[in-house]
């Protein structure tokens, strides 16, 4: 879908609607899957779709349901289809198995390099290079997986995967409905067998409503024996007291005018048992005029079981299956009712959006079963902390919403938020362990003209601000937050266009040898040449890129472009200029499972030797500490490719020396915060000296960032710092200006080297 971001979003919304409508109208699960495959393939441009279902052993196996675009001719596709239908996918194996294990839509950008893709050979023969898959959820379980393939290697966008997750939920509801209908049909069949064997209750009455006949089934259903019932009126025996007057009026109206809308109709009515309890019956009435007057007859049977099933299905449709709390549908309905009353009475309404902090850690540490128990306990605590008139709902995952009618001020809403925080504070016992949970809470008050969705959305925005502001706190919504969200969305949309339209630029800042003043390397720095805002620094867009995952394709572009440009510097190395280059890796990039393979592919495609150029990667302490074990493995693999590894902004994070010892590091870059006041601050000097001495003892090179004055440079030289970087020597330069500078430095010479004096 090559269109504007707005059109893409609209297309995805239309796709979601189309799948939802088709799924709801489909006759059975198989039809729903076929319609979904066709709709997704046509809307996304991925020509091949395939459905797999969970088998009794918990693995995925092909359903034999495919959609192949008519414009996708391939003589080898049959082999790929046969291979797909012949193999079983347990959790974690292949694209479907990974989706089954992780429970989220996943993409595969290039089948040729994916080691966890058993069908690689036949896929490549069939000209299928890229894929993505989505889980179909029924309750808390995955019942099916849909996978899609395309001939061109590409990474499915985060927006596509997001809408796929929603489509999986919609299809899951088809599975749930089918299962419920099957259960209901089975129950009705059993009920019919009982009725056919025992018979319906048969009741005969005269014009006065006096019972004249009463069979054995009626004895069973209503509790009256035939001898007891015959001669009594229907009103006194089986009609509940509150309906008797209406029953008498209807009978009299029929006898007077011959009008009765109920005759010949199958009706559901409340009935009275001999023991005084009311229960639902399905009854059919008809009349017969005889010589001695009118007679009435009825067949009836007890439908309590069916009603119970219907009520259960209704409850399931409106409640969360894990916690029993109202779900999003019911919450929206109740909010809309509150908003309607508010418009009439001018009463208040507050909504609190609650998201548990670091809940993923509980799942990762104790397992999902323990995580479910925590969610159940949280739900119970939230309910106990609220009033009977309030509604507590679970939206999804660890997200809860509380609706508080008659709350009109932020002060009152804040008191409620504090009470909820206190309710969550006590430890939750999991076997022999205690788990502590906290939550970030967003608060929104209903304003004139707002709807339920907007109210929840405003509270969600406020919750996000609370989370970014330090977690375990509450935040009140204001319109400025909405503007910030809108700005962020515009940046996100523009970022998508920026990569496609080639708006990114590389700048390079020289790094200087402290001892000689020679340029020894450069750091590649990303800039965005925005068509409206001009040249943007990373601080203005990098956080959005990181959060949305766009940093991954952007970061790959940086690596590839740097490799391409660095090739032009090899001649300088031959001329005696030992120039290296380093690029930055974000936390998101570092956690990509295919990072090393992708870097290796880029090196090969550019015939690039990282050892000849002294190519390196810079990572921050914070990025490394997100997952130290995985980071150490990835960095070692990059180093094995010949790349240098630098720890950027050293001293600002929270890594320990023990971790540093384990990381394959070549260089430490001292953060500019320690350099800024080093001429006057003895503590900063002591820190830099300690870091330098420690690094040298570990055979590491030390770079000082942010050098802007000669005084700073002189002190850093005295502290034996190896390399210097900052505005004192050069600001970041575009590639063409850097090339000019480097050509002037064929012989090493000082750019600026203060006298050690």
Overview of this structure, please?
- By secondary structure, this protein is of the alpha+beta class.
- It is built from 29 helices and 28 strands.
- Strands 19-20-22-23-24-25-26-27 form an eight-stranded mixed beta barrel, surrounded by four helices. Strands 3-2-1-6-5-4 form a six-stranded antiparallel sheet.
- Helix 1 packs antiparallel against helix 2.
- Residues 746-757 have low confidence and may be disordered.
Integer average pLDDT: 85
What count of structural domains? 4
Largest sheet: number of strands, sense, barrel closure = 8 strands, mixed, barrel
Radius of gyration: 35 Å
Give the fraction of residues assigned to helices: 40-55%
CATH superfamily of the largest domain: EAL domain
Beta strands, count = 28
Question: Structural class, from secondary structure content?
Answer: alpha+beta
Poorly predicted runs of 5 or more residues: 746-757
Q: Label the overall shape.
A: elongated
**Multimeric status of the protein:** single chain
Question: In CATH, what is the class of the largest domain?
Answer: Alpha Beta
The share of residues in extended strands comes to 15-25%
N-to-C CA distance: 65 Å
What is the spatial order of strands in the main beta sheet?
Answer: 19-20-22-23-24-25-26-27
- CATH fold-level topology of the largest domain: TIM Barrel
Total helical segments: 29
């Amino acid at each position: 879908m090559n269109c504007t971001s707005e059109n893409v979003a609209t297309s995805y919304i239309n796709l979601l609607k189309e799948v939802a409508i088709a799924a709801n109208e489909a006759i059975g699960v198989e039809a729903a899957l076929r319609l979904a495959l066709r709709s997704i393939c046509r809307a996304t441009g991925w020509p091949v779709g395939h459905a797999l279902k969970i088998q009794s052993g918990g693995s995925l196996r092909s359903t034999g349901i495919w959609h192949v675009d008519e414009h996708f001719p391939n003589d080898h596709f049959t082999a790929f289809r046969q291979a797909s239908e012949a193999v079983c996918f347990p959790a974690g194996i292949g694209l479907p198995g990974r989706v089954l294990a992780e429970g989220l839509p996943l993409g595969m950008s290039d089948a040729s390099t994916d080691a966890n893709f058993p069908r690689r050979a036949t896929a490549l023969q069939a000209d299928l290079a890229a894929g993505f898959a989505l889980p179909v959820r029924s309750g808390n379980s995955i019942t099916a997986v849909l996978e899609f393939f395309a001939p061109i290697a590409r990474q499915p966008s985060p927006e596509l995967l997001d809408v796929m997750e929603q489509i999986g939920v919609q299809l899951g509801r088809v599975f749930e409905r089918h299962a419920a209908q099957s259960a209901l049909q089975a129950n009705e069949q059993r009920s019919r067998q009982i009725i056919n064997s025992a018979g319906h209750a048969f009741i005969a009455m005269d014009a006065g409503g006096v019972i004249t006949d009463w069979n054995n089934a009626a004895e069973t259903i209503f509790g009256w024996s035939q001898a007891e019932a015959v001669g009594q009126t229907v009103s006194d025996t089986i009609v509940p007291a509150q309906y008797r007057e209406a029953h008498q009026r209807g009978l009299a109206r029929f006898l007077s005018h011959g009008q009765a809308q109920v005759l010949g109709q199958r009706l559901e009515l409340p009935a009275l048992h001999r023991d005084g309890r009311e229960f639902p019956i399905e009854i059919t009435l008809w009349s017969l005029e005889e010589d001695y007057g009118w007679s009435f007859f009825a067949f009836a049977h007890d439908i309590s079981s069916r009603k119970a099933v219907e009520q259960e299905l209704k409850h399931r449709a409106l409640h969360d299956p894990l916690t029993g709390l109202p779900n999003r549908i019911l919450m929206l309905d109740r909010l809309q009712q509150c908003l309607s009353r508010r418009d009439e009475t001018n009463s208040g309404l507050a909504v609190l959006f609650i998201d548990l902090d670091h809940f993923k850690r509980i799942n990762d540490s104790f397992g999902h079963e323990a995580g479910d128990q925590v969610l159940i306990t949280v739900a119970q605590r939230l309910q106990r902390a609220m009033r009977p008139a309030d509604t507590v709902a679970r939206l999804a995952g660890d997200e809860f919403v509380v609706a508080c009618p008659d709350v009109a001020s932020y002060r009152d809403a804040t008191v409620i938020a504090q009470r909820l925080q206190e309710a969550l504070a006590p430890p939750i016992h999991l076997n022999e362990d205690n788990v502590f949970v906290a939550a970030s809470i967003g608060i929104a008050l209903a304003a004139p003209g707002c709807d339920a969705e907007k109210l929840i959305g405003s509270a969600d925005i406020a919750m996000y601000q609370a989370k970014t502001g330090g977690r375990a706190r509450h935040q009140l919504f204001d319109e400025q937050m909405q503007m910030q969200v809108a700005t962020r969305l515009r940046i996100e949309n523009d970022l998508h266009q920026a990569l496609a339209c080639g708006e990114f630029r590389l700048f390079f800042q020289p790094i200087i040898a402290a001892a000689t003043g020679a340029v020894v390397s450069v750091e590649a720095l990303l800039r965005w040449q925005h068509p409206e805002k001009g040249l943007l620094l990373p601080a203005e867009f990098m956080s959005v890129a990181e959060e949305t995952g766009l940093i991954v394709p952007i970061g790959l572009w940086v690596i590839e472009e740097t490799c391409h440009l660095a090739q032009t510097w090899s001649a300088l190395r031959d001329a005696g200029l030992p120039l290296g280059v380093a690029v930055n890796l974000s936390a998101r990039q570092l956690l990509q499972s295919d990072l090393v393979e992708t870097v290796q592919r880029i090196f090969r495609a550019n015939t690039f030797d990282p050892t000849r150029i002294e190519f390196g990667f810079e990572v921050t302490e914070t990025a490394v500490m997100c997952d130290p074990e995985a980071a150490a493995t990835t960095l070692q693999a990059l180093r094995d490719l010949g790349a240098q590894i630098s720890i950027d902004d050293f001293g600002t994070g929270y890594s320990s020396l023990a971790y540093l010892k384990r990381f394959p590091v070549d260089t430490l870059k001292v953060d500019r915060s320690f350099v800024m006041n080093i001429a006057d601050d003895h503590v900063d000097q002591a820190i830099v000296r300690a870091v330098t001495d420690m690094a040298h003892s570990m055979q590491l090179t030390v770079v000082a960032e942010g050098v802007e004055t000669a005084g700073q440079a002189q002190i850093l030289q005295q502290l034996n710092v190896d390399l210097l970087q900052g505005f004192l020597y050069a600001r970041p330069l575009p590639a063409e200006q850097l090339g000019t500078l480097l050509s002037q430095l064929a012989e090493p010479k000082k750019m600026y080297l203060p006298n050690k004096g």
